[in-house]
Amino acid sequence: METTPEPSSLPPSPSLLVVDNFLAASGATTRTVNEDLADRLEGRGWRVLRTSRRQNRFLRLADMLLTVWRQRRAYDVALVGVYSGAAFFWAEAVTTLLKRLGKPVVLVLHGGNLPVFCRRWPRRAWRLWSQADQLVAPSPFLPARISLPPGKSRLIPNPLELSAYPFRLRDRVAPRLVWLRAYHDLYQPEVALAVMAILAKTIPDLRLAMAGPEKTPGAAAALRVLAGRLGVADRIDWGGKQAKPAVPAWLSRGDIFLNTSQVDNTPVTLLEAMALGLCVVSTDAGGIPFLVEDGVDGLLAPTGDAMALAERVRRLLGDPALAARLSAAGRRKAETCDWSRVLPQYETVLRETGTHEIQLGTPF
Length: 364
Known about the structure:
alpha/beta; Rossmann fold; 12 strands
């Protein structure tokens, strides 16, 4: 595995402002990649400012803009997370102010729904991309679906701390499935229950461990009702939101990770399952085929097709050699995304961007 140079052997780092949702301290279910990135850069000797921890979205935007302005002499380069929906507009407002201040900007693109949003707002999207000095995406999916200015895009995978995910080769797959996403329409948890109903007809010891946060009140209760109607309620082990340290243990309850999303980019949860050695059975939504190669390190099925997903699960249960190949290949894929490899890539982009703009830009 690649080693990361010691901070003392690297050129001086520019001071950094990270603009994203910093909500983990307020009880958010997951930390953003940029939250972890800020902490790790700080641990490497970078001076890092962060915004914002405000829970209210309007106060959050105000806090972001005020921090950009008030701290303008305290940072050399800014890194801004970009998402679809309302979050796109705060990224747009923040980036516009940063460029008025003469600050170099790295935009980090997230979210499987971003291509749909950009088709709705093509001029605004293009204007934002044109303002960026560098654009970072976690896979080729977003650059392939979004029109981006040439020469600005960099691919840096979503990272994970590999040492937290002990690998076990799944060469003998038991009918133990795991589902771990948000209880939300985007991730179609009801399809996982439909898969269980199909498989339960012929697999008597089938079980599913299903966990996730509720994005809409009552979603978990509605799923329990549906499981009862489908006759699989006694086969489901339910869980709520899983804190990051608990994720490896929850995923390790099973041998097959079932992902049913209809919109996705490059989900870290799939990487986590692959790192642990689970065999991945997933829909082919969004950027997932850029992360999981069908038949190589996972099995893919059409989005929303419970019958096709069930057939992939049966293949794994009936073919230990296939399961072992997918399990080992998934771990190898996850190893390429360890923080020890990803962090130096971010440092390179930030140093190059900061140095270039500090030399050529006009400070406010």
